[in-house]
Amino acid sequence: QFGTNHLAHFALTGRLFPLLIGTPGARVVSVSSVMHLVGAIRFEDLPWERGYNKWLAYGMSKIANLMFSYELARRCSERGLSLVAAAGHPGYSSTNLELRPTQGSAFKRALVGFYNPLVAQPAAVGALPQLYAASAPGVRGGDYFGPRVLQLWGSPKKVGSNRRSRDPETLRRLWEVSQELTGVEFAALKQRKAPVISARPALA
Q: What is the model's pLDDT at position 114?
């Protein structure tokens, strides 16, 4: 889950980064989840080889998506790059995400298949926060969008995330570990910001 949901997206963005920063109006939108609330980065066991729990592992991957977005936004801002890194999440949407963990249990699958469409919003509505982050005017680096009602249902709005997702030291460490594990570095972010040259005419 961590490899697919976080490292793969980190590597893809890194490979495309030269093109992204050379394209006016470019944005990178990461897809997180309300499940980031139960997530924590287990640096000592990122593959979850000990005590695996599917939902906690998923939560870790989703808080990693959010941390990547925040850290990318910060680094771009420090270097004076116009690329906007934002994030969104679909709230509680009716997809097969809830059905997949029920494989092997006909009863659980039938139960989830019954109540999920009744309680969850349509998948098309769940896609709106991500589309908003990708296309709405005024979106800034570090913004995070989710459904309006309890971050579970409704039209998109700017939302907050927990304190753990914004811890500067964890964000920095996750970035460095992600570079090591993928072998992908964002070279442009290592360059110093160009100095501002005064436009005032020289005195005679």
A: 60
